[in-house]
Amino acid sequence: MKPLHTPKPAQIWVDADACPAVIRDILFRAAARTGTPVTLVANHSLSTPPLPHVRAIQVPGGPDAADDAIVERVAAGDLVVTQDIPLAARVLGAGAAAVGPRGEPFTSNIIKERLSVRGFMEESHGEGIATGGPPALHARDRQAFAAQLDRWLAAQPRPPL
């Protein structure tokens, strides 16, 4: 007997404005391997490989336009790849999971901590103290991201054969 309602498969949303190319490549390989839909959202044109489960959405420029587009489309159970702490908080509130390109899953506690640090850094920057940006992405970061992605993919229900 066929179920009356087949749940929509979870998909991966990428805040692509600041997502490193090497992380996008890991996501493209995962989409090719598993058939999981991957959607890149950015305020600039993006090239994607010719894979049936990969697409890009270009949104108008403006503050948080890509974030807003992701929040409008994300569903409970989806995964969002982002470095943006406020976006991570918004998608967690929608029932989705969020992970950074270094493989760290965002939780409510981590988000609170990061927002506190961010506020301090913004204050320091406003006072003329050089705060710098995030460190370069290393091989261990790529491995951590790939491992976290694999854990999320393994937890997804498989469609019936």
Automatic annotation (TrEMBL):
Which NCBIfam families does the record cross-reference, listed alphabetically? PRK00124.1
Q: Which family does it belong to?
A: Belongs to the UPF0178 family.
What is this protein identified as? Answer: UPF0178 protein XOC_2105
**Which species is the source of this protein?**
Xanthomonas oryzae pv. oryzicola (strain BLS256)
Q: Provide the transmembrane region boundaries.
A: none
What InterPro entries would the database entry show?
UPF0178
Query: Which domain of life does the protein's organism represent?
Result: Bacteria
